[in-house]
Amino acid sequence: MINSKIKTSRQRFEKVVPATVILVSALIILYFFLRPVKIVSTVREWNQGYFFVGNFPMTAKARIEWWEENKEVLKEKYNMPFIGTDKQWTVLIGEAGDGFQFLQHRASDNDLICFDSLKPGANCAEKKWLLWISHFNQVDTRYTTDDSEYIQRGVNAEIKRVDN
């Protein structure tokens, strides 16, 4: 009798623990994929826009989808009227990291981009680009991520991966 109760408890334990691990893992994964993107800072210089973000999607496809869904809001909210025009323009979306820094605090400035439009001092940010969007030839848009490149030839055309 006692032996059967021990066996029953062990069987429940063997079922509950894996189910709990799977549930917690699924919740953690959902948390990372469903977090809203946070715009930490923006810089506009001529026909180039820079967005420094937190919680950006992890995959190239999700990053491009996020851009397509939010570009009009970003254009209006952050005063970047060139986005969506037929003129040549570029938008870079980078990791916010440690925010803006003083150039002299770095051993090398090769991994920094500094903005003359910001007040002198902490006007440099690390170049950790997550998505690079280039619009050219009036209708073509190129999307570049750390490991892949996509192109859209024409307004509302399909976005296709560029084979290397």
Q: What this model shows, in words?
A:
By secondary structure, the chain is of the alpha+beta class. The protein contains two helices and ten strands; from the N terminus they run H-E-E-H-E-E-E-E-E-E-E-E. The strands form two sheets. It has a seven-stranded mixed sheet with strand order 1-2-3-7-8-9-10, with helices on one face. Strands 4-6-5 form a three-stranded antiparallel sheet, with no helix packed on it. The longest helix is centred in the first third of the chain and has 33 residues. The chain is extended and about 70 Å long. The mean pLDDT is 86.
Stretches where pLDDT is under 50 for at least 5 consecutive residues are none
Q: What is the string of SSEs from the N terminus onward?
A: HEEHEEEEEEEE
User: How far apart lie the N and C ends?
Assistant: 68 Å
- Rg to the nearest angstrom? 23 Å
Strand content: 25-35%
Mean pLDDT: 86
User: Which structural category fits the helices and strands?
Assistant: alpha+beta
